[in-house]
Amino acid sequence: MGTPSLPVLSAAWAGYGLLHSLLASHPVKRWVAARWPRLMPAYRLLYNLVALVALVPFVLWLRGDPGPFLWRWTGPWRWVADGLGLAALAGLLLPGSPYDTALFLGWRSWRERRMDAGDGEPFCIGFLHRFVRHPWYALSLVLLWTRDMTALRLVSVLWITAYFVVGSRLEERKLLALHGERYHRYRARVAGLVPLPWKTLSRAEARDLEA
Q1: What is the mean pLDDT of the chain?
Q2: Number of independent structural domains in the chain
Q3: Is 36 left (phi over 0), alpha (psi -120 to 50) or beta?
Q4: What does the alpha-carbon distance between residue 93 and residue 87 come to, in Å, rounded to a whole number?
Q5: Which domain holds residue 173?
Q6: Is residue 1 domain-resident?
Q7: How far is CA 99 from each of CA 43, 54, 96, 124, 135, rounded to the nearest angstrom?
Q8: Is residue 51, in this structure, part of any structural domain at all?
Q9: What's the pLDDT tens digit per position in 155-199?
Q10: Facing residues of 150 across strands?
């Protein structure tokens, strides 16, 4: 697969983000539920499959000829960048995550033959959620921005960053509708994507909010 121009790559990422957001929105899910109700138990499985397959061209493009580097981490900065990247990767793989993996992947909905259009996410504050509201997004951004950067990678990372910012706000609209005042109080106490020392929760405060 040939290497795309920067405008083509940018347009492709914009299209991917739009498709991903539309398929995740409640209006689209309710529309599918009304027209093809038997599809709903498999909806999240199919959603994740579409998202994964749609990423294949980007992976091939970025694995091809990336062009000259805009910057590279060298010397002591290489150790810092790799240390931050490894710490972010460890955080992404941290056991005890409050996310229901079966629900996230769609296996739970398929297994239980759930016909509703909602996600049914429980309100749960894990360890990392005490410091930042969207830890997976935040850790992924650390992992992305600590790599050596070419023009193709920079365009991709900028679009992914923009998607995480917009996507986190869209996700919070759904969480506010689902959990109401509890999530409103949580959002007021904890930072969104960039951890802030004065906006964290103790373990006891997290338990109080969960209750």
Answers
A1: 84
A2: 1
A3: beta
A4: 10
A5: 6-210
A6: no
A7: 18, 24, 9, 8, 11
A8: yes
A9: 999 999 999 999 899 889 888 888 888 889 999 999 989 999 899
A10: 69
